[in-house]
User: Which sequence fits this backbone?
C-alpha cells in the first residue's frame, strides 16, 4: 500500500504475469477435458477424420453465432488477410488431423509423449528454415528431449506406426503453424480469439473434402449407429464435448500466443502435456512400463532444461521476431 504511487510499471508487469498464468491454467484445463472426451469418442467411433472435422465445424459455428449476436466483435478482414491465413490453415489442418489419427491408434499418453518433443522441432525448423542459430546449450538440451521420446517410443506396449507418425507429423505441422500465426497476428487488428476463429473456418473448408474422401458418409453413418447402440444417447454429448472443448482450448491458446513468442508457446504446450499424460493414464487405466515412464520423464525434464537455456537466448529471439 505504501509504495502504490511508484509501482505502476511493476504492477502492470505483475498484472501481465497474472493474466498469462490464468490463460495457461485455463488452456491446460480445457485441453485435459478435450483429450478425455476425444479419446472416449474415438474408442467408440474410430473415425478421426470426421471427429476432427466436427471440432472445427463446432468452433466455426460458435464463432459465427458470437459475431452475429455481437458477443464477440466481428473482425475486419480482407482478401490479403485470408491469403496470408492459408498456409497457417494448411499447417493447422495437417497438425490437427494427424494428432487425431494418432490418438485413434494409440493411447492418449503416447501421442502426447511424442508431442512433448515439439520444442525440438521448433529449434530445428528455426535453425534450418529460418537460419536462426542457437547456443550449443540449446542443442544439448534437445538430446534428452529426443532421447526421452525415443525411449518412450521403443518401450511403448501398444506401439503403432500410424500412431507414432501422426504425432510426429503433428509436431512439424504445429511448429510451422505457430511461426506463421505469430507473423500473421503481428501488427494486425485481428485479436488472438478472432484469428483462431478465422483459422477454424478456413481449416474446416480445407479438411471437409479430405475427410469425405478418406472416410465418407457411409462409414460414418454405420459407425454412428454402432456407437449409439453400444454407448447410448450420451455418445452424442461426448462428441459435442470433444468439439466444444477443442475450440475453447485452442481459442485460449491463441489468446496466449498473441502475447508470447512461438518458442514460449511450445514450452507451455509441453508443460500442458504433463497434465494430459497423467490424467489420461489414470482415467483410461493405460498400462505403463517403467522404462516407458522413464522415457516420458526424461523428455519432460529435457524440456525444462531447454526452457532454461532458451530463455537466455530469448531476448535475442524476440528482437529477431520484431522484424518479421
Ligand atoms: C488436435 O486434435 O489438434 C490435437 O489434439 C492437438 O494437440 P495439441 O493442441 O495438444 O498440440
Assistant:
Amino acid at each position: 500500500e505504501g509504495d502504490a504511487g511508484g509501482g505502476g510499471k511493476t504492477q502492470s508487469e505483475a498484472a501481465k504475469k497474472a493474466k498469462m498464468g490464468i490463460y495457461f491454467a485455463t488452456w491446460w484445463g480445457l485441453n485435459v477435458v478435450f483429450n478425455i472426451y476425444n479419446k472416449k469418442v474415438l474408442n467408440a467411433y474410430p473415425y478421426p477424420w470426421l471427429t476432427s472435422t466436427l471440432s472445427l465445424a463446432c468452433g466455426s459455428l460458435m464463432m459465427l453465432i458470437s459475431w452475429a449476436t455481437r458477443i464477440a466483435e466481428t473482425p475486419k478482414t480482407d482478401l490479403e488477410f485470408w491469403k496470408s491465413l492459408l498456409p497457417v490453415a494448411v499447417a493447422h489442418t495437417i497438425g490437427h488431423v494427424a494428432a487425431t489419427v494418432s490418438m485413434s491408434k494409440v493411447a492418449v499418453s503416447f501421442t502426447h509423449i511424442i508431442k512433448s518433443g515439439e520444442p525440438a522441432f521448433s529449434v530445428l525448423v528455426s535453425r534450418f528454415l529460418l537460419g536462426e542459430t542457437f547456443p550449443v546449450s540449446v542443442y544439448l538440451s534437445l538430446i534428452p528431449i529426443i532421447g526421452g521420446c525415443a525411449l518412450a517410443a521403443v518401450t511403448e506396449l501398444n506401439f503403432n506406426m500410424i500412431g507414432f507418425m501422426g504425432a510426429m507429423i503433428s509436431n512439424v505441422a504445429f511448429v510451422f503453424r505457430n511461426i506463421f500465426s505469430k507473423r500473421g497476428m503481428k501488427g494486425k487488428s485481428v485479436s488472438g480469439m478472432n484469428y483462431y476463429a478465422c483459422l477454424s473456418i478456413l481449416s474446416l473448408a480445407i479438411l471437409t473434402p479430405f475427410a469425405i474422401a478418406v472416410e465418407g458418409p457411409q462409414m460414418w453413418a454405420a459407425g454412428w449407429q454402432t456407437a449409439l447402440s453400444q454407448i447410448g444417447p450420451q455418445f452424442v454429448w461426448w462428441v459435442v464435448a470433444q468439439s466444444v472443448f477443442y475450440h475453447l482450448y485452442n481459442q485460449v491458446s491463441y489468446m496466449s500466443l498473441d502475447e508470447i513468442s512461438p518458442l514460449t508457446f511450445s514450452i507451455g504446450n509441453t508443460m500442458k502435456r504433463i497434465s494430459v499424460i497423467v490424467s489420461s493414464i489414470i482415467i483410461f487405466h493405460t498400462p505403463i512400463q517403467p522404462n516407458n515412464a522413464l522415457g516420458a520423464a526424461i523428455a519432460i525434464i529435457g524440456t525444462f532444461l531447454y526452457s532454461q537455456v532458451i530463455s537466455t537466448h530469448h531476448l535475442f529471439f524476440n528482437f529477431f521476431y520484431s522484424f518479421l
User: Anything to note?
Assistant: The chain is about 80% helix and 0% strand.
